[in-house]
Structure to design on (253 residues):
């Protein structure tokens, strides 16, 4: 059975797209059949993060009812499967022919995990995208404005009956709020903490997930740990060390 997991936030810019593509990449590397859907129809970013922003068929075509959702799927050079949305201003005004939940139903049984990169805020598009999910992961940065807005996102999810699986603290460092503070305010478990890491910015310039371009970085380690946790497994650093050794061995072959 396919799992539909939405990545949400109250405030914009906290790292939803970064989280979605990196979790998608790690789960793919762990052998899962994954697709990342850019469910942000107004200001989509998945294609921009991966350097593929002008694809011929996008989620917008499926929303208009012109194509089956599977026709809008592409495999990125890094191995991650994505369903991008169109970045054109005209397409951003698309009137939905079908709800996102209905469109997502067409992916049922076709993949193991569908990760939806959902836009920030509490609007109708967000509600529709949330309804397409079995579980939501809320991304926050460790500051009061982000956490306060996340609380509203959680309340909206509760109102429409979609489970919030947990919270990811992103861009962690020298912070205003501790993980304990955030857990107390949001009353949801913290399932992962990703440090502020300049390598994430570099990966955006390279147009690759950081776990692909900088697999040994602190952020990458956090994403691997998080993905393993989602699969109910423990991420062991020995796995990472083995892969480094594996790569070294290849160089000497
Ligand atoms: N752990 C991190 N360390 C450093 N920079 C990060 C980290 N996570 C994300 N960023 C940077 O923060 C910026 C916003 O990230 P991203 O686009 O993923 O946020 P978003 O929540 O999807 O934004 P939006 O609400 O606009 O869709 C990007 O420049 C990204 O590279
Ligand atoms: Mg985004």
């Amino acid at each position: 059975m396919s799992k539909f997991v939405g990545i949400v936030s109250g405030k914009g810019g906290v790292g939803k797209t970064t989280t979605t593509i990196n979790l998608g990449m790690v789960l793919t590397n762990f052998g899962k059949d994954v697709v990342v859907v850019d469910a942000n129809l107004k200001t989509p970013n998945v294609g921009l993060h991966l350097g593929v922003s002008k694809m011929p068929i996008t989620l917008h075509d499926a929303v208009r009812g012109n194509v089956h959702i599977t026709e809008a799927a592409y495999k990125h050079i890094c191995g991650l499967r994505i369903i991008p949305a169109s970045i054109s201003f005209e397409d951003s005004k698309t009137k939905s022919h079908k709800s996102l939940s209905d469109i997502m139903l067409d992916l049922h049984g076709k993949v193991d995990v569908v990760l939806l990169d959902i836009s920030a805020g509490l609007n109708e598009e967000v509600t529709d995208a949330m309804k397409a999910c079995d579980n939501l992961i809320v991304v926050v940065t460790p500051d009061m404005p982000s956490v306060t807005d996340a609380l509203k996102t959680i309340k909206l999810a509760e109102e429409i009956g979609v489970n919030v699986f947990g919270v990811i603290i992103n861009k962690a460092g020298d912070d205003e709020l501790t993980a304990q503070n955030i857990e107390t305010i949001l009353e949801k478990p913290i399932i992962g903490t990703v440090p502020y890491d300049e390598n994430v910015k570099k990966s955006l310039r390279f147009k690759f997930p950081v776990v692909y371009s900088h697999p040994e970085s602190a952020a990458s380690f956090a994403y691997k740990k998080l993905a393993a946790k989602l699969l109910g497994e423990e991420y062991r650093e020995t796995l990472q060390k083995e892969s480094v050794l594996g790569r070294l061995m290849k160089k000497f072959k």
Q: What stands out?
A: The two ends are 41 Å apart (CA to CA). Strands lie at 3-8, 34-38, 74-75, 81-83, 113-117, 135-140, 163-172, 190-195.
